[in-house]
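YM 10:42: 2-succinylbenzoate--CoA ligase sequence, as discussed on the call
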Amino acid sequence: MVELIPNWLQQRAFLTPQRIGLVFNEQTWTFHDMLEIVNDYSSRLHSIITSTDTKVAVLMKNHPDTVWVLHALQQLGIEIVFLNNRLTVAELHYQVKDSKATILLYDCDFRQTAEELHRFTNIPFYTSEDILGMKSTTFQIRENFILHDVCSIMYTSGTTGKPKGVIQTYGNHWWSAIGSSLNLGLHSNDAWLCSLPLYHISGFSILMRSVIYGIPVYLMEKFNPVIANNMLISGNITIMSSVSNMLSRMLNELGDNVYHENFRCMLLGGGPAPYPILQKCKEKGIPVFQTYGMTESCSQIVTLAPEDSMEKLGSAGKPLFPAQIKIMNNGEIAAPFEAGEIMLKGPNVTQGYFNLPDVNEKAFQHGWFSSGDVGYIDDEGFLYVLDRRSDLIISGGENIYPAEIEATLMEYDGVLEAGVTGIEDSEWGQVPYAFIVADKQVTSSELIQFCQERLASYKVPKKIIQVEELPRNGANKLQRRKLPQLLVDGDIS
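YM 10:58: structure's back
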């Protein structure tokens, strides 16, 4: 049986036409405004997109034009291939070719990249200005979305091997939004600050939740800790999605200020959060709810409920309704507190990777998706994420989780960021190396002694390197696989 749901933007504009749907800088648009603009974009794009089999690659920044384009492609029933604008032309070329995209829509800021891609692929490419110059044509408005239809394809960051195109259906996005609202609730004054890129699932999911919930998105072109703090102080924002690096920068800029009482939720994802950051937020009264999710689960799939936020500090929480999680270790369900691979199941979980049947066969086991992450569930059912399996360091037969060492280093006064990875060693197989960003003079011997007092000897970094910045992706997540490239920067003196 085909499951249908009313077209989200059209239904939202019908239900609450005068509610604010989008805020960008000093401009605002109601949901009625949005639908009119999107339908205009749709009618123009329809002149160059004649088949629903077309896949359109989008290389755009956080801007209202991007919002109109993304909604317009949904109105036309076109699968969206999101492109990370921080990637190289070679990386983008692979994704365009792999996804079989036949049209590229891009920002003028990325004209050089688009032109190089065009030379590689020969697919037509258009800016948002080009779209507005196209002839309007009559198109059939989609009254309903089919839940199992593909809405978007997002490529993984490629921690191992080539990036894989994650298929996301309308049903995945719908259930992700519903699961989040059943956990966090929905308030009449809710407004979500989106400072994460729209090409990332954390950003795009906010856009989808806006039209499903009927709440405004405050869109930032680029994350800025000072501006983000001011918006949270203003009282206009009730929810923000962030990762540890972003929150750390906001805390450093916040000083003695506090956020407005309207601000009720800082969703913190992107990997295990260092305890020092969580403790600072607790002291400042910032309502941090750790989450766990991925592109394959269409954003968060586990979130710490508000009533558990302090008692279960460090936990990602329990699965959002109606998702399920379990931990597998050597083919068996792990006992409480026993580490193993995190397995996911639910209507927000991807149906697979695009055009990779062999990979999909391995990724799914009896309906459960293998996340590739390591964690454990305590005796009350709360998930604790330890690390990516691919980031695990095995030293002399001992498992070392980089996130634990990173959190310890960030407890040291002056250390703003930390990244840990395994480096090959002839005696131990691998040993942990640490890379830090600090705002004051620190020495390797001081930090190593600090770690020795708090960590088992095999977990203490064998070398600590101070750098200007750590490698991060578009969503500010640490890319540990790139840390060895920083070794040329030398040791801390």
